[in-house]
Request: fold
Amino acid sequence: MPRDDLVVGLDIGTSKVAAVIGDISKESEIQIIGVGLTPSKGLRKGVVVNLEATMASIEKAIEDAEVMAGVEVGSVFAGVAGGHIRGINHHGVVIVSNRKNRSITEADVKRVVNQAKAIEMPIEREILEALPREFIVDDQTGIRDPVGMSGTRLEALIHIVTGAVTSIQNIVKAINNSGLTVEDIVLQPLASSESVLEQDEKDLGVILIDIGAGTSDIVIYVNGAVWHTGVIPIGGDQITSDIAIGLRTPLPSAEKIKKAFGCALTNYTNGSETVEVPGVGGRQSRNITKRMLAKIIEPRMSEILQLIHREIQTSGYSDMTPAGIVLTGGASMLDATPELAERVFGLPVRIGYPDKVTGLTEMVNDPLYATGVGLILHGARERRMGNGSRRIIKANHFNRILGRMKDWLSDYF
Reply:
């Protein structure tokens, strides 16, 4: 029988698959007891392109985490991302059903959210998330929880996230074929937000930027709620490719060099320090300076940040985030990335490290694990709300369950 005190986060990314196992104590404290990390060889920009290779990566990551934890797992909370993700804002309005005292009920809230979600959409896309931004009772705006208030007219402003059905079906299928069930699908940047953002940042207004290998994901919080999500189809892999081409070295060597010696700002490097660069096809290695390496990295990282900045400006909420920028994801760990980001955005920037957990914290104290830890935090909350019950999602009935995946009303009630 599966243990209800175990929760597993599975982050299936373009460059890596990370599995994190958490043990939920009676006091609802989450202890990390197992971690598995393996290269991802079956995805491109967050989308499955080779099912067998994706399954192999999932199985290896889960196996490593199980060995470390000394347990067997059967279900996971999985993250989804990719260039197919889109976010739009919409609103709905209903008349309060209780005509006697005009008291707003949870049923009214669900009705207005469902009404706001009733948008026309292409057959190949479905709603993944419906995130309430705020509620309006008659003319009173900025309400987070209208239940119990008196009014005649209830409006909901929501942020809707949509995705390509087939892309998510393939993720679920890869997990199912690996011998696991899926308890829930969560948008990866929202999961990262769970582990790296503080509530006061969300309340004040903050921008989360998750720079992965294939994509860069953006979430803008205003007044404690998600007001905008966006995906830029470029990430750390482009930097690796530039290094490989510029230095004429194999891609695996370029990735190692980037992680070990990469710097996002040329003037932050020591011109006398050198790096050994393996040659292609058995050619002799040679040495280059860190400054030369930074001259390759800086233009590409600057371009990525500029594209993100353009997306933020287009959203119209760039002036509503005084808490600044939180960078996370593997590519954010390049030296001087926060300094470069501050120049681009004109806002304070910090690196987001996953926290709010205990146990093997030294193993997950890296932006690389932000999504995995966030998935565990989300899963633990879902278990508490469901009193330990599990919901199983399968690829062959994905269309049927998409409508009830989760509308995140739990954040408000």
Observations:
- The radius of gyration is 22 Å.
